[in-house]
Design brief:
- By secondary structure, the protein is mostly helical.
- The protein has one domain.
- It has eleven helices and no strands.
- α1 runs antiparallel to α2 and α1 runs parallel beside α10.
Length: about 270
């Protein structure tokens, strides 16, 4: 086993886990860090798809009591039925848009410069959102109706653009549409479960010919790193949103995006071409 390659796998796993549920774009960070580490190409493509499962399983574990309660209540509990329907409604828009446009999006936008641009634009949108008067209609996830779910689902479509952030789009979208910070964050986490499972297995199926048993150790290392770092990130974000807004993430996105653009255009870092 190449120790340098194993180290890259661990680094990318940590990056995936830490950024998947923060409003900073995990896909964008994986593209950028992978480019810096020279971990690109078809092998890297399958690796980054596979380790997403580690991050999403962290959410399943953190909310295992709620997940079990909902599964047991399907067909018997009105609250459980409403929760599942809301998730389905929120899931469908991005699923349909992804099936229609993801190939084009990956071809044109899965590169450092478009990612940097999306990071900056997303940061500015977060700053704008935080300066608006926030009227709360929904305090808890269980209080959401189908209209709230649909609006958050439409916001999630923006996350098809790398650098936008799935969690950022759904959390900030939730704030726009009347959800409390806690409700927006938690619904974003729950919505990630069907969205990421579907996207991951669909991508793995499409790229099944690239799967190589020799890469199993690398994938396992990245998977484990993603799981434990995502667990920490989810818990930290829930504590953070109870007392803070998302302004710090907006400035992080803006500064990071500017650094990428400056280093690209000055030639300090040889980012891959569009």
């Amino acid at each position: 086993m190449d120790l340098a390659l194993l180290l890259k796998a661990l680094i990318l796993g940590v990056v995936e886990g830490l950024t998947e549920f923060l409003p900073v774009s995990s896909t964008g960070h994986l593209i950028l860090i992978g480019d810096l580490l020279d971990f690109t190409g078809e092998r890297a493509k399958v690796f980054t798809i596979a380790i997403q499962l580690g991050a999403i399983l962290a959410v399943c574990w953190e909310y295992r009591a709620k997940v079990i309660e909902v599964v047991r209540g399907i067909g018997r509990s009105a609250a459980a039925n409403r929760f599942v329907i809301n998730l389905l409604i929120a899931f469908l828009p991005a699923a349909v848009m992804g099936l229609l446009f993801i190939k084009t999006i990956k071809y044109y936008l899965f590169h450092p410069i478009p990612v940097a641009t999306a990071l900056i634009v997303g940061g500015l949108l977060i700053l704008w959102a935080e300066r608006r008067e926030h009227v709360i209609e929904v305090e808890q996830v269980d209080d959401m109706d189908w209209k709230h779910a649909l609006k958050v689902g439409l916001a999630q479509c923006l996350a098809l653009i790398p650098g936008t952030s799935r969690s950022g789009a759904t959390i900030i979208g939730g704030l726009f549409f009347g959800l409390s910070r806690k409700a927006a964050a938690e619904f974003s986490f729950f919505l990630a479960i069907p969205t990421m499972f579907a996207a991951t297995f669909y991508d793995l199926y499409k790229n099944r010919e690239l799967l190589d048993w020799n890469d199993l150790t690398l994938i396992a290392a990245g998977f484990a790193a993603a799981f434990f770092s995502a667990l920490l990130a989810v818990r930290a974000l829930l504590r953070f949103v109870s007392n803070h807004d998302f302004t710090i993430f907006a400035w992080y996105r803006i500064v990071f995006g500017i650094v990428i653009l400056v280093t690209a255009y000055t030639g300090v870092i040889g980012w891959s071409e569009m």
